[in-house]
Amino acid sequence: MKQQTPVSLARRVWPALAVAGASAAFVSALDHPTQFATDTVSLTGAVDPNTPATLLSVPALATTTVAPVPVDPAAPAPVATVPPVLSTAPPAVAAPACGAPIAGPVVNTRWGPVQVQAGLTPDRVVCDVSALQTPNSHNRSVRINNYAKPILHDRVLSAGNARINGVSGATITSRGYVASLQYILDHA
Amino acid sequence: MPPNTRQAPRPRTPERGPARALPRPRPSALFGTDIWIIAAAYVACVFGLWAWHGGVSSLTNNWLDGWLSLSQLSGLLASACGLFGVVLIARPRTLERHLGLDKMFVWHRYLGESMAVLLAVHIVSAVIAGTADGTGVWAVIRNYTGRQPYMAMATVGGLLIFVVTITSLKSIRRQMSYETWYFVHLTAYVALAISFGHEIVLGNDFADDKVARWFWVAIHVGVLAAVLSGRWGRTIMSVLRPLRVESVVPLGADISAITLGGPGLNRLEAHGGQFCMLRPLRPGLWWQSHPFSLSAAPTTRGLRFTIKDRGDASGVINSLKVGTRVAVEGPYGVATPDVAVGSKVLCIVGGVGVAPARAMLELLTPDQQPIVLYRARSKEDLVHLDEMQQIAQSLRGEVLTLVGPSVSLAVKDPFSGDSLVRAIPDVAERTVFVCGPDSLVHAARRGLKAAGVPTENVHFEMVWW
Under a CB-based contact definition with an 8 Å cutoff, are residues B144 and B126 in contact? Predict the structure, then answer.
């Protein structure tokens, strides 16, 4: 009987190992979840802050230009209307004189209304900002916005104004957020 | 063969007593309808999840929601295909006893192909939905390939599924050795595992719905348990209690009959017509496992397999030395004499496909008058012919042979309906077993249909490697 030379395991298994190794390399090369919100859209960089109409006339947005805006009673923080009063619990910001939060207009986006409130220092730098409402008619929207809101908050505070980059994956909310904030800045 | 000099000591040698038939595998506790009900219930759950989370209304809401909803549904269904495919490969006993492993592998192929298509739909529709808010395609792709949590793993998982599917396409599969293909195929497990994260964290159905999330986790844990116990546990058991090669008898130029025995037989249940996965426990061979059909009724004297050297592993098995330990998994297969009780029998076999027919023949009764239609390339390839003729005659049957290249045969198309009826006038009332190369199986099934044999009376074994 003829003797067979057994094929070596290494020769048979290397394509699979190569595929597995390439997969591991791909995962480590691609996986940057910390940069989830890398900037892709610059929203206000090119917009003159003195002409909010330009910003607000973005086709997707329809702004209700009513100020002061009636505040949703279900909103988490009580909101002072325009003459500002001192907030009882001042936010943890180094600047001492952060004005009481002012509610911005409701900006209707294609996914739903966006509205922010912001506190300004006397020289009109944003020292406190939070979203009063964001689109919530879809679970997906809620998830995206829960993710995007803290990022937008941090970006606004570090910029001090509405000239920030949007959050990728939450472009529409970002636009609404910036539009509502810009209105506060323009009219405060 | 040299005389048996390396016979291993066996504490309980069953073959010393008279040969007793091994116990037969118990029939499946499942009915065909049960299998369909379980599968349909799971698919209904998947559709239910989708509908419950707004899939149906989103589909018609606007075009963006529609794409999102389509992506969600195709993702869920792709996952369902993947899980079913894995369950089939885990070969739970009741399922195997009902369907037969070869049919399960055919279904596994269909499910795998469906999964790849659904996955493509899932990816494309997700990207389209992602671009709808004005984000550019490239930005969305970068987003979905790593910037969102778990998406890098899901991307690579998807690529792996495509690699596995493409290497399984018949034209590509033919160009690879079985083992190369097999090891690449194993990465499908990795693909399913690393895709799980994005389903739970980003999936519309699971990120917000606690009940759905636990359902999903439970299903995956269940499938994992089935794979661990059914697939790997079975392999470990077979390695722990191996049989030994008792004899290797050359039957022709490249065909041998190999008999395995030993105390490990005590745990086996087997029936004629079934096949086992054989894994020689020898350096350089332990990682290969291949299916071979029993070629004699399984008894306490041992299991006989008839193996043709087709290059690769089958030749290696033929050259094993007496005493070599061989891990035996199985047996598998449902084309046994049990399906022909009370009916006359016809076996159509080609080449080494004779093995299961030979094993079955021994277990038939005279009122079944078995006829064997034996197709072979040459006289030398007609292995077991004497044995078969002897058994067939004792059962009031006969063996008809068709030898030589197709052009040299007296009948132009031996497996056409007319030829079959002429050779075997009562073919329509027989239960038919077909075993051989794909081309023979297809020709015979066509011919049998034309000859008026009801489809449910035709049993065939696919050779899949």
Answer: yes
- Residue B62 contacts A, CB cutoff 8 Å: no
- Is this prediction's pTM over 0.80? no
Write down the H helix ranges in B91-175.
Answer: 93-99, 101-131, 137-142, 151-168, 170-173
| Phi and psi angles of residue B418, each rounded to the nearest 5 degrees, phi first | -60, -50
Whether residue B331 has a cis bond before it, omega within 30° of 0: yes
Q: Are residues B366 and B283 in the same domain?
A: no
Are B326 and B432 contained in the same domain? no
- Would you call A171 and B135 a contact, using CB atoms and an 8 Å cutoff? yes
From B211's Cα to the closest Cα of chain A, the distance in A is 15
Q: Give mean pLDDT in consecutive 10-residue pieces for chain B, a chain of 465 residues.
A: 46 58 83 86 92 80 80 94 94 88 90 97 91 78 82 94 95 89 94 92 78 92 93 91 92 88 87 91 87 91 88 76 91 89 91 89 91 89 90 92 79 84 90 89 92 90 60
Report CA torsion sign: B173, B174, B175, B176.
Answer: positive
A123 CB within 8 Å of a chain B CB: no
Neighbours of B261 (CB within 10 A): 21
To the nearest whole angstrom, how far is the Cα of B144 from the nearest Cα of chain A? 10
Q: Provide the domain count of chain B.
A: 3
**Angstrom distance (rounded) from CA B139 to CA A171:** 12
Both tokens assigned to A14: 């290397």
Q: Are residues B88 and B120 in the same domain?
A: yes
ipTM, 2 dp: 0.78
